[in-house]
């Protein structure tokens, strides 16, 4: 008896080309889907769901909730924790809200923060309000709202939208409220304490270490602390923290 083994030849080059073609085709379909998500998301909102924040469109919690219902985005395991911290001016608190957001099989963890020193709740023309005059419930609610906006926009990929995109979605941008900030939350054109806390929350979420943060700030902006971040550099630094740069 003899055994005959049949040898089948496979062209590895053609197989690799076919695989790459499949990847490109899937990527193109994904691009079209993401573009449709952006358009449909904006169409679900109106001018009351957006604010002009520093010249750029910012989606509010009401808009994020509308969009979440449209696509079936859900969140659970929400934790809202009060954190006590200190700076050169003394002790203060902020709320950090975390939750798990799901869309189909995709799952992410989102964070929202709000500080006792937030300028919307604590800042006046004369300076900061005393703690007794600040409604702590508002701080807690704001942290939750920030988490919802962060989670919904991240999982759907609709962050950093432009005014042209918002207009194309049918929103009357002429009626959008504008939010203005006092120049330099810490004086001299520097970011506020709340912005610094938000920056570190983003870094924590993306897994960046203290050493990486320090090295980036030192090598790129020649500063040694987040307190020295200029308001003009804040957006670019947050994008780096998110991993977009």
Low-confidence stretches: 182-187
Overall 3D form: globular
Portion in helices: 40-55%
Looking across the biggest beta sheet, what order are the strands in? 2-1-8
| Overall residue-averaged pLDDT value | 82
CATH class category name of the largest domain: Alpha Beta
**Total number of helical segments?**
8
Q: What is the second-level CATH architecture of the largest domain?
A: 2-Layer Sandwich
CATH topology of the largest domain: Enolase-like, domain 1
Q: State the order of secondary-structure elements, H for helix, E for strand.
A: HEEHEEEHEEHHEHHH
Largest sheet: 3 strands, mixed
Question: Which range does the strand content fall in?
Answer: 15-25%
How is this fold's topology laid out?
Elements: H1 12-43, E1 50-53, E2 56-59, H2 61-71, E3 74-87, E4 90-103, E5 106-115, H3 119-122, E6 123-124, E7 127-128, H4 136-156, H5 163-168, E8 177-179, H6 193-206, H7 210-221, H8 234-242
Parallel strand pairs: 1-8
Antiparallel strand pairs: 1-2, 3-4, 4-5, 6-7
Tell me what you see in this structure:
The chain has 245 residues and is an alpha+beta fold. Mean pLDDT is 82; it is low at 182-187. The chain has eight helices and eight strands; from the N terminus they run αββαβββαββααβααα. The protein has a three-stranded mixed β-sheet with strand order 2-1-8. The chain folds into two domains: 15-180, Enolase-like, domain 1 (2-Layer Sandwich), CATH 3.30.390; 186-195 and 207-245, no CATH class. Helices cover 44% and strands 22% of the residues. Helix 2 packs across helix 4 and helix 6 (193-206) packs parallel to helix 8 (234-242).
């Amino acid at each position: 008896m003899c055994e005959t083994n049949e040898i089948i030849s496979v062209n590895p080059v053609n197989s690799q080309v076919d695989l790459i073609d499949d990847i490109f085709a899937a990527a193109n379909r994904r691009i079209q889907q993401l573009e449709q998500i952006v358009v449909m998301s904006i169409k679900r909102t109106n001018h009351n769901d957006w604010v002009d924040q520093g010249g750029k469109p910012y989606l509010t919690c009401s808009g994020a909730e509308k969009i979440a219902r449209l696509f079936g985005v859900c969140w659970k395991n929400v934790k809202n924790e009060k954190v006590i911290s200190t700076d050169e001016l003394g002790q203060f608190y902020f709320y950090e809200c975390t939750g798990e957001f799901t869309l189909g099989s995709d799952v992410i963890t989102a964070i929202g923060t709000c500080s006792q020193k937030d300028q919307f709740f604590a800042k006046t023309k004369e300076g900061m309000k005393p703690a007794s005059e600040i409604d702590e419930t508002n701080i807690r609610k704001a942290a939750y709202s920030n988490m919802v906006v962060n989670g919904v926009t991240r999982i759907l990929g609709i962050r950093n939208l432009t005014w042209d995109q918002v207009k194309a979605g049918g929103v009357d941008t002429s009626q959008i409220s504008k939010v203005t900030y006092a120049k330099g939350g810490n004086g001299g054109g520097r970011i506020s304490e709340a912005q610094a806390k938000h920056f570190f929350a983003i870094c924590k979420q993306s897994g960046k270490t203290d050493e990486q943060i320090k090295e980036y700030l030192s090598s790129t902006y020649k500063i040694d602390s987040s307190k020295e971040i200029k308001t003009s550099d804040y957006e670019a630094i947050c994008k780096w923290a998110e991993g977009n740069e």
